[in-house]
Amino acid sequence: MIGFAPLLQLPLFMGMARDDLQQIVAHTKFDFFKRTADSKVISEGDRCEAVVILTHGSLSVEKQSDDHGYGVREIVNAPLVIQLEHLFGLTQCYSASFTTLSPCNFMSIAKPEVMFLFEQFDVFRINYLNLLAAKTQKAQSRLWHPAITDLRSRVIHFLVSHCTIPTGPKEFSILMTRLAIEVNASRLDVSRVLNALRSEGLLQLRRGKILIPELRNLS
């Protein structure tokens, strides 16, 4: 049986009373599993049938454009609730692939158990709604940012806006010609911007790849 102390580290259970946590531990079915390093845990397009929580370790997250013409790879660390927003709604499938970078421990709560927690515990339901609301508000606020006119800022905005985690290393798999199309510029001009950013130590260029050591420095 899981102790309730680890639950307090997770956003879904923050602020819950001790008695409520004891009831959850006693009456909720938690599934636990482990994966060794370099194991695929979730693939893009898999059905989201449970709340999956990374409780220990690090994951590589890979997300692709709709036509798989480019993608980005990020690193995330525990504790992490994996794509909570895909449990309900129009598209109940994961939009990214998750692979372990180290030995990892996971905890999952099946959808029927989540529904039970919604019904029985107001704080759990409010925490869930707050997480979804925060994602929605961030997405909506981007629509009202001032227009970006210079090419350097457009390139940086493209890279930053396609990342889920605002810090840490990123690896983009994208051809120069595709990036030029995405930022509405010529390949030559995009090449000049990327080489300028490389000379400043903000990114590295490889064949078909853009490596960003620390996204926070770029943004």
Describe the structure.
The chain has 219 residues and is α+β, with helices and mostly antiparallel strands. It contains seven helices and eleven strands. A hairpin with a 2-residue loop joins strand 10 and strand 11. Helix 5 packs across helix 6. The model has no long low-confidence stretch (mean pLDDT 93).
- Structural class from helices and strands? alpha+beta
User: What distance lies between the first and last C-alpha atoms, to the nearest angstrom?
Assistant: 44 Å
**Annotation, overall tally of beta strands:** 11
Q: Indicate the percent of residues in helices.
A: 25-40%
Instruction: Give average pLDDT, whole number.
Output: 93
Query: What proportion strand?
Result: 15-25%
Walk me through the topology.
Elements: H1 18-27, E1 31-35, E2 40-42, E3 50-56, E4 58-64, E5 71-77, E6 80-82, E7 97-100, E8 104-110, H2 111-120, H3 122-142, H4 151-161, E9 170-173, H5 176-182, H6 187-199, E10 204-206, E11 209-212, H7 215-218
Antiparallel strand pairs: 1-8, 2-7, 3-6, 3-8, 4-5, 4-7, 5-9, 9-11, 10-11
Helix pairs in contact: 5-6
Question: Can you describe this structure in just a few lines?
Answer:
This protein has helices at residues 18-27, 111-120, 122-142, 151-161, 176-182, 187-199, 215-218, and strands at 31-35, 40-42, 50-56, 58-64, 71-77, 80-82, 97-100, 104-110, 170-173, 204-206, 209-212.
Give me some keywords for this one.
elongated; 7 helices; 25% strand; four-stranded antiparallel β-sheet; alpha+beta
